[in-house]
Design goal:
Length: 333
């Protein structure tokens, strides 16, 4: 999604996810040359009702067999004129998953699917324009109607990215209130980044009235749907009693959850409460271990934790080192 420091406002950079959510965690294997990768020009046929071919294409994609996925997607797109298959073919080609990257062919597939009103294709085309635009405001502006169309058809990432454009004045007039409207459209569909972004606006009073209770509600929901930075922000709010009653024990559990997910700020905060025993039983060796992990990820230095580490007894230091060795072997706690 896209990690951001929890204490900062929404990042200005527009970050675009792939047109199909399944590709976010895939790694591209060695390239192999594809065949028949552009849309056919035959007279469109009526879409068939048997989706076995499309299921097979997605199955191959999930297994990492991208060349087969592309072949099946192209066959499905050309035989049934299926826009979903077209988007899958476009994604594989645009990202170079298992095949030679071919942005031009990918664009053709996206355009063919967009002509059929496919929201993911419209979003993909907008993403390509924004990525290729650099600092060219005119080209960026061409992406806005595509994003609007995609958002109107239900693409939540399009709505979220429109919010970012209006928030920072990129390709659209700077307008936090309009940004909040677009974030809300996506947040209402549980888009994690949009929930977090809207929460930050309510927290800061940008484009909406300042409302710590609403900010906390949105952070909670973003945390529930897996947004790690929002989980950290929500833990801070719970710990400090901002927008809700203070609950240090509950906050500790949230910090631990985000720390296990790799958030350096949460790792630092969890180390601090372990060191002090607020919300959890005091455990200085475990605190030292979490602080070490946070530092290895670029976490901020903390004078209190630095002092705590220097005052560990030899047995406590040995225990902390044992914990780190255990984690290095693949088990965290």
């Amino acid at each position: 999604m896209r990690a951001r420091p929890a204490a900062l406002a929404v990042a200005a950079t527009v970050l675009f996810a792939a047109a199909t959510g399944s590709s976010r965690a895939q790694n591209a294997p060695d390239a192999t040359a594809p065949a028949a990768t552009t849309p056919a020009t035959a007279t469109p046929a009526a879409p068939d009702k048997d989706h076995a071919a499309l299921d097979a294409a997605y199955g191959a994609f999930q297994r990492g067999d991208y060349a087969t996925a592309l072949k099946l997607a192209v066959e499905r797109a050309n035989s049934a004129h299926d826009p979903v298959a077209m988007v899958l073919a476009g994604e594989i080609l645009s990202q170079g998953y298992g095949v030679f990257e071919d942005k031009a062919a990918a664009r053709q597939w996206y355009e063919a699917a967009a002509a059929k009103g496919n929201a993911d294709a419209l979003f993909a085309l907008a993403s390509l324009k924004l990525k290729e635009a650099g600092n060219n405001a005119q080209i960026k502006g061409e992406a806005v109607p595509l994003l609007r169309d995609a958002a109107a058809k239900g693409n939540t990432l399009a709505a979220y990215n429109l919010g970012l454009l209006y928030l920072e004045g990129e390709a659209a007039p700077k307008d936090p209130a309009t940004a909040a409207d677009w974030f809300r459209k996506a947040a209402d569909q549980d888009e994690p980044d949009a929930l977090y972004a809207l929460a930050i606006l309510y927290k800061e009073g940008r484009g909406v009235p300042r409302d710590p209770i609403e900010a906390a509600r949105l952070l909670q929901r973003a945390a529930e749907v897996g947004h790690v930075v929002a989980t950290t922000e929500y833990a801070i709010a719970v710990f400090n009693g901002v927008g809700m009653p203070r609950d240090e024990e509950r906050a500790a559990g949230l910090f631990r959850k985000a720390a296990l997910a790799g958030n350096a700020i949460a790792q630092n905060r969890y180390a601090k409460i372990l060191s002090s025993g607020r919300g959890v039983p005091q455990d200085k060796p475990l605190a030292a271990a979490w602080y070490k992990v946070a530092q290895s990820q670029g976490g901020a230095k903390d004078a209190e934790l630095d002092k705590m580490v220097t005052t560990l007894t030899p047995p406590e230091r040995a225990k902390a080192e044992a914990i780190l060795r255990k984690w290095a072997g693949g088990t965290a706690g």
